[in-house]
Amino acid sequence: MKSNLASFISTKVEKGLPSKIHGRGLFATDLITKGEVVAEKAGFILTHAELETIQPTGHIELQIGDNAFLAPKDIVDFEKNMIFINHSCNPNVGMRGDRKFVAMIDIKSGEELTIDYAMIDDNDYVMTCNCGSPKCRKQITGHDWKRLELQKRYSGYFSTYLQKKI
Question: Which of 85, 124, 146, 150 is most buried, by the most CB atoms less than 10 A from its CB?
């Protein structure tokens, strides 16, 4: 059974282009101004156990609760559901609510749109960072949102789910 589960992507961006950070990314094709919505994640609300039954490549989910994630139910919806926004320790995108990705600064055409996963994740994982930023933490965890310096730096841009925990 095929669903129609597409995430919203602004007409000012192109998704899925090759990224120097990781795999494919999300890139500006026009000037994006601070506060502008660049994407909104669609998906079914799945538990962690349900997520583990899906076998796509990459980070497909957006956490919206302790055991609640927005994601496609199967690989059929993978491409149209994915936003392809990579992690950076010096991001230009943050969250508004639990689904909307907004520009934190003006973003020029050609720039990759990135988010710090500290704004959206409270999960048990560790990953090596490849963002190349002078602010790079080198190692990213699913609990970086607890770092006071990041809470201060990203104030107003955490997902609602994490903002309630802070």
Answer: 85
Question: Which two tokens mark 80?
Answer: 């149209």
Domains of the chain are: 8-165 (2.170.270.10)
- Identify the residue whose tokens are 């934190």: 104
Backbone angles phi, psi at 12, to 5 degrees: -95, 10
Q: Are 69 and 61 in contact (CB under 8 A)?
A: yes
The closest alpha carbon to 31, from 108, 112, 102, 105, belongs to 108
Q: Which two tokens stand for residue 122?
A: 């409270």
Q: What is the dihedral of CA 163, 139, 152, 142, to 10 degrees?
A: 10
Is the separation of the CB atoms in 28 and 107 below 8 Å? yes
Measure Cα distances from 78 to 60, 82, 99, 104, 154 in Å.
Answer: 8, 6, 17, 27, 29
Query: Does position 142 have pLDDT exceeding 70, yes or no?
Result: yes
In 29-165 the beta strands, taken as DSSP E runs, fall at 37-40, 44-46, 62-65, 68-71, 86-87, 93-96, 100-103, 112-115, 126-128, 139-141
